[in-house]
Amino acid sequence: MRVGFALACALLLTSVSALAEPVPELRVLSEHPVDGMRGGNLSGLAQCGNELWTVSDRDDDQIYRLDTRQATWQAETVHIDVPELPETGLPWGLRSRNWAASFVRGGDLDFEGISCDSAGNRYIVSEGHAAVLQLPVSGPANWLKISPIVVREARAKGMLQKFNAIFEGLAINPAGDQMWLAAERQSRGLLLIKRQQTVWDCDGRCVLLSEGGKEMQPAQFPNAKAVDRDFSDLSFFNGKLFTLERNAFQICRRDPLTAKVERCWSYAAELLQENRRYSQDYGLEEALIVNADGAWIGVDNNFGPRADGENRPIVWRFAAPEGGWSAKP
Predict the structure, then answer these.
(1) Which residues are in coiled coils (predicted)?
(2) What is the per-residue pLDDT across 189-224, written as a single tens digit (0 to 9) for each?
């Protein structure tokens, strides 16, 4: 009995120690302001071969290829002809609020994420309509045929309930037949859908994770407080799903089939340095690429200046963590 009690105490102390272990910090290698985005509001990043692509949530008719040859990057416009929107199952009330807001801010489609498969096809998620636009390597743009069951199941789990809190990011596997979608907040969640002949649908269950609640902002944040848990983008790399969790100022590696957190890395120490701070009382990072050499993180600052006066979108290059992205805690 005493041996069992001692073992239980040891396990408890080990668990507490693990929980208390600080999240390792990522290190910035370079910083790149972006010129040439008509709508600003850089809200997604993708790497297709050697090219970087981005979207703005204020532009419905174009995306951008990034010329990265200089320290200041130039966004090169690529026009898109968007076909008629499909029926996704998102309630009329949410769609109509987004339509009304578009007259003030621009961007009825509200593009919030972009991803590429290994063939170079690009996929863009529309938060305003809970839909995914495919831009094939050749041929016209087309909306993916996503079963309405996807939105129905997400809403049944408490997600996609609030205006401007729908799908905030997506990631696709290299084969182009599995896609992850991130519900932003209140409640946040992760969904997995698969291509089944001509329709994208759930393979069993769609919802891998649904959670609400709040968490504390990092200690570096001025007047840190508890804020809504959120996801602002996704990246799929080396068989793992990486989530950008802007209110916590961290990237987390997750199991792609269960969404279970395996490890997290913080970028708070770098992006919350005084000269890089923005006046908003929440995180603004909305774009993520993870690869073997590190990570790209982009900010949607809505043309708001940071402390040093810079008001263009920024993309930061972070070094890969010690031991790589597959390292265990």
Answers:
(1) none
(2) 999 999 998 899 998 889 999 999 999 999 999 999
